[in-house]
Specification:
Shape: globular
Order of helices and strands: EHHHHHHHHHHHHHHEEHHE
Number of helices: 16
Structural class: mainly alpha
CATH architecture: Up-down Bundle
CATH superfamily: MFS general substrate transporter like domains
Radius of gyration: 20 Å
Helix content: over 70%
Length: about 425
């Protein structure tokens, strides 16, 4: 391990770059559906199945990763995961039909799921708890950057060069990010050093038996189900039901992404000061209101851009709150295991919502519009109602545990260079 101090800003930037490619690989698939569905002869109602194939495989990978991810240097494990994601994304660009595209997305999920867990584990290992909310907000800002830059550029590339171009372009960009992470991200081995691991390491089933872990995982499942029962169908809904031009979809993601990026930066610092419950609950309530307005009782005077802007604000507040909170639940030695299992449960919930529940409620009409979207939205609202109570209970338990024990610095964690105020 290098003895040079490592800047928090540099670590956050590198992890953010990793997350950008990982997230863009996932989020661009849904907006591109109107492009590849026609070219490959795929029914619009099956878009959720394509998204669900990624999340289902990511879930299985997360379950398996819970058994071994904490045994390795997090940097090396992250590099392997990202390299696999790059190959799978390129394979998606070479798909010839529904089945080959699903296989490619399954492979992407196998590597992309653990990559997310490892990236968040690195941030949680290196960034102190009192600044973690702001750091998480910055890293999660990769989602908004993917929306602001990645999705619009992907849609433009599809317009100019066909739907395969975005997949191949993201794969090439991912390869560059992998090289950057290998050469510039410091080794993260603190969880492997003597004195940081328990004398009797916590097993998967023992971890799953903890009440705070169970509540965290239940909350994660509800967050993902309430979102992904609806999100994969938004592009088809606004194009075919609301009549928004397909060629202008990039515009929606651009505006929503800009607002989301600002929201994540502000929400992260608010979580550090006000707590996850308050910020997350505000996001949940806003999201429920926008879901009702946009999909259950849509008024013709309400701008479609308003739906996207509201969703990005609501999702940003909710997600940074729950991710920051759950990162504080496990001890350092089992953090990657905890996050890997959390990723598995989250992806499993996403797959259930997008590939099972939503198709049961949706029907593609002859004009390609979606019937039943109002029922999908109602289920989303009901699921979201259970999130604030869980935020409240988990936050109380985390605070109680923090007061009962002090967490010593990780013995093998890279030294962090001072960055002025100390904020990332």
């Amino acid at each position: 391990m290098s003895s040079k101090p490592v800047s928090e800003r540099a670590v956050i930037f590198l992890i953010g770059a990793v997350q950008f490619v990982n997230i863009l690989d996932f989020v661009m698939v849904m907006p591109l559906a109107p492009y590849y569905s026609g070219a490959l002869g795929i029914d619009s109602a099956h878009t959720g199945i394509i998204a669900g194939s990624y999340t289902a495989s990511a879930s299985i990978a997360g379950l398996l990763g819970g058994y071994f991810l904490d045994r390795y240097d997090r940097r090396k494990a992250l590099a392997v995961s990202m390299l696999g994601l790059v190959v799978a994304t390129a394979a998606g660009g070479l798909a010839t039909g529904l089945h080959s595209l699903i296989v490619a997305r399954v492979c992407a999920g196998i590597f992309g799921g653990p990559a997310t867990s490892l990236a968040l584990a690195i941030i949680a290992d290196i960034i102190p708890s009192e600044r973690r909310g702001k750091a998480m907000g910055a890293v999660m800002g990769a989602l908004s950057v993917a929306q602001v830059m990645g999705v619009p550029l992907s849609l433009k590339a599809a317009d100019l060069a066909g739907w395969r171009a975005p997949f191949l372009g993201v794969a090439a960009m991912g390869l560059l990010v992998v090289l950057g992470a290998i050469f510039f991200l410091p080794p993260v081995r603190g969880h492997l050093e003597k004195g940081t691991r328990a004398e009797h390491p916590v097993g998967v089933w023992e971890l799953l038996g903890r009440k705070d872990v169970q509540l965290s995982y239940l909350m994660s499942a509800l967050v993902m189900m309430s979102g992904f029962i609806l999100i994969p169908n938004i592009p088809a809904y606004v194009v075919h039901n609301l009549g928004y031009p397909r060629e202008q979809l990039w515009n929606l993601y651009l505006v929503g992404g800009v607002v989301g990026f600002v929201t994540l930066r502000l929400a992260g610092s608010r979580v550090d000061k006000m707590g996850a419950f308050r910020v997350g609950t505000a996001g949940v309530l806003l999201g429920m209101a926008l879901t009702y307005i946009g999909f259950v009782s849509y008024p013709v005077w309400f701008p479609i851009h308003g739906i996207f802007i509201g969703f990005m604000v609501a999702m940003g507040m909710r997600n940074v709150a729950y991710n920051t909170l759950t990162s504080k639940v496990p001890e350092n030695a089992v953090r990657a295991r905890f996050l890997s299992l959390q990723s598995a449960i989250s992806h499993m919930a996403s797959a259930l919502a997008s590939a099972v529940l939503a198709p049961m409620l949706l029907t593609t009409l002859p004009d390609e519009s979606l019937a039943g979207i109002d029922h999908v939205a109602e289920v989303s609202i009901v699921l979201a109602m259970a999130i604030p109570p869980l935020l409240y209970v988990v936050e109380r338990r985390v605070r109680a545990q923090a007061a009962a024990r002090s967490t010593p610095p990780l013995a093998g964690t890279p030294a962090l260079a001072s960055s002025g105020s100390g904020d990332p």
